[in-house]
Design brief:
This protein folds into 2 domains: 116 residues, Aminotransferase class 4, branched-chain amino acid transferase, N-terminal domain (D-amino Acid Aminotransferase, Chain A, domain 1), CATH 3.30.470.10; 155 residues, Alpha-Beta Barrel (D-amino Acid Aminotransferase, Chain A, domain 2). Strands 7, 8, 9, 10, 11, 12, 13, 14 and 15 form a 9-stranded mixed sheet that branches. The protein is globular and about 55 Å long. It is of the alpha+beta class and 283 residues long. The structure holds 4'-deoxy-4'-aminopyridoxal-5'-phosphate.
């Protein structure tokens, strides 16, 4: 069976899937996306992701290319056609195809692409058991990173910088030296049994995994604060971790080569991982 993608209303073989050279996503990064985790062939936290997709579209005044209720159908179709057990679905919408001009085209139709893939079995658990290393980098992104847009060059550069330094993720620093978030994840520390993460604003993406973990922590009555933190707080932290749809809860064992706690995956990361998985919605 070959892989299939959903491209502008059609299911086609992945290897033959194409978009137009004047798609505004390609020319201007004029589009938005979502990444859905798939577990047991079910979509994790569908409602949160679709709500954020609609918000991103609205903020950029991009029309939805399909009826709102059809998103779930097509995501499920991609899961079925590609036999995805545990993996992810990537969904992208752009303002469509038009002769290159900065202004919005008058009559373009939004483009949509949905692709999916399996992740190797035990990939997450193996990574979780090792934990990840983080490198800090300047946050050079635009001022509306609350919109999940295709404008991803700064996080691409930050992630590559982290990789060049033997790290798996970059934590981005604002002008005052506070961590905004990871290049593709939200950032968290734990100090004296209290979980700390930066409050939501236009300087971070309101992560769906973040929201689910926050509501799960409140359900079990766990102590939690939304505040900014900097490198001194990190040095002083007992534990650190990231959250994202593809990494769920992932422990951070070092930042800039400074060990967090004893430099091993800590008990709170383990606990929060369990709490998180207990409260995700699968649909
Ligand atoms: N922040 C950024 C910049 C991201 O790219 C992501 C991944 N989409 C996240 C946070 C985490 O968001 P989510 O939990 O919805 O995947």
């Amino acid at each position: 069976m070959s892989r299939e993608a959903f491209v502008n209303g059609e299911y086609i073989e992945y290897i033959n899937s194409k978009v137009h050279i004047e798609d505004r996503g390609y020319q201007f990064a004029d589009g938005v996306y979502e990444v859905f985790a798939i577990l047991n062939s079910k979509i994790v936290d569908y409602e949160g992701h679709i709500k954020r997709l609609n918000r991103s579209l609205k903020e950029l005044k991009i029309a939805s290319p399909i009826q709102k209720k059809s998103y779930k159908f097509h995501i499920n179709e991609i899961i079925k056609r590609n036999i995805i057990q545990d993996g992810l679905v990537y969904l992208q919408v752009t303002r469509g195809v038009a002769s290159r001009d900065f202004k919005f085209p008058k009559n373009s139709k939004s483009s949509i692409v949905i692709i999916g893939k399996n992740t190797p079995s035990n990939y997450y658990n193996n990574n979780f058991n090792k934990g990840i290393k983080v490198k800090t980098a300047k946050d050079i992104r635009w001022k509306r990173v609350d919109i999940k847009s295709l404008n991803l060059l700064p996080p691409v550069l930050a992630k590559q910088y982290a990789a060049d330094n033997g790290c798996e993720e970059a934590w981005l620093l604002d002008d005052d030296g506070y961590i905004t978030e990871g290049s593709s994840s939200n950032a968290w520390i734990v100090k004296n049994k209290t979980v700390i993460t930066r409050p939501v604003s236009s300087s971070i993406l309101n992560g769906i995994t973040r929201s689910t973990l926050i509501s799960s922590l409140s359900k079990v009555g766990y102590k939690f604060i939304e505040r900014k933190f900097n490198i001194n707080d990190i040095k002083d932290a007992d534990e650190a971790f990231i959250t994202s749809a593809t990494q769920f809860v992932m422990p951070v064992i070092a930042v800039n080569n400074i060990k967090i706690g004893d430099g091993r995956v800590g008990e709170f990361s383990q606990l929060f991982k369990e709490i998180y998985f207990k409260y995700i919605s699968l649909s």
